[in-house]
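fyi for ur records
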Amino acid sequence: MFASGVVKLTSRCPTWWGLTALTYHYETQCIPTSLAWFAHQLPVWWQKLSVVGTFGIEIAVPLFFFSPLRRLRIGAFYLQVLLQVLIIMTGNYNFFNLLTLTLCLSLLDDQHVNFWLRKTDKTNNDDSKLWLWLSYLLELVVWSLLIFGTIICFDLQLDTTNNSVSSRTAFTYHHLNHFLKTVTIPSVWVGVLSLTWEIIKAMFRCACVSGFLKRFWGTVQWTVFAAATAAMFTISLVPFTYIEYDSHARLWPGVRNAYELVDRYQLVNSYGLFRRMTGVGGRPEVVIEGSHDKVKWTEIEFMYKPGNLSAPPPVVTPHQPRLDWQMWFAALGHHTQATWFTSLMYRLLQGKRDVIELIQTDVTQYPFHQQPPAYLRAHRYRYWFTEPKADGTYQERWWRRVYDEEFYPTVYLGSTFLEGMLNQYGLKDKSPPRRPSNTTVAKAMRWVRTQVRGVPTPVLIWTLIACSATLCLLRGLRNRSKCTEPPSHNASVTVSNHTETTDHLGKSDEQQETEEEEEGEDSEDQVEEGEGNERGNVTDDEEDETVEEDEERDNQEEEREKDDLRKRRC
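which gave:
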């Protein structure tokens, strides 16, 4: 997250430095949502203030992740959640933001989770009032410094005449570079100390496990996970320090050597989403057209990417429509930079059903589902969001566009240009198709695919998520009902006996001796009374013997419970 905010400034993109990036972002991102249209209509001063907030959450707040004060970590968690939720609402980035939110859950402690679940907090807070007040004071100072630093760095001023907040970048690239030199290496050491502390805590938890086998198995797990975590953290330092050249050069050579050994596996990488804002002059979009006679051309509309000017932007999270995403990247350059685009045109001319389903899950919505087109071509347009009318009403269309240039020339099966491109990129069919597997798993997967064919992928994914959530909810309600059932009579008797035993152990020795003497006197009186009543009938004697046996059994149970309590206290 820290690197995501820094690279926006180190790229020297004028839109990020001018705080105007969000005035372009909502309409130029890969696959916007319908809410992105409304966010795009917000005033410019609010868009610039949103960029300031983004820099604060992405650059300053991540430093609170390693704070020893829990409320700073919790505050950082909620600020990250705010940013990710806003991104999810205005853009379709598959499960990327959901993974970020999942990682942010590690900032919470058991006390806060119990607060969420409305459970009783069992942690012992033995902190003194002095420490609590010092913590509150320190947290207030930290948040005040964050707000004050944001105001100074971005020259925030309240404009009462226009009821707005003016902002501008009040620091230079030299100041940013000096800040990165000061922060990068210390942040690495903070990460090292934090990771070392967590590994040591986990080691002590394993050592405190009772039982040789459990302790041995826990130690093995600790060794494997600690080694893997330390190794991943070590090699991740190389791409992390790319944000500052001098800090990267100061890394230990052994770290760089380890990174080079595993670089081909892409275990770690540098991060810099939207480091430069694209589409400043309009969103580039490739539109494919097909024809049977080379006279009447029909646009091939995709399910998710912008094309039809009247179609509302969809919500597809957490689905990742790969082809629609690749079309966005292809529009940013020449078709020779997207070699797969030639293969797409070739397969559409052949009428391959698997490729058609990537464009339209419901094949009947594809304009050439009955007969493949004889000719195909592609043009590039510039797209913008429409603006509300002067009277405040909304237009019927979501987009407006202007023709830019030809992206791919007109081709047909056997055309010289298409054959040359296929041969150049090695996209011609060279080997016969593979035989379908007849294993049980393969047959089951093919059957499942036939059952869900035609169902939009986002609908399918959200159906599975809703079913899983419903099952978890029903299971939780069932467990809760079991816990709230009234205890049986035997359980209540056992609890009462256990309470009496606990009360007896809690008394002093003198009180116990006094009670034993009183019990002895009572027993002597009972013996004398028993001797005077020896002439009772046989039925009374049998009942007395039964009572005595029950008393002896109860005494034995009480002695066992006393021994158990003594062992627990020891």
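The first helix runs from residue 2 to 10. thats all i got for now
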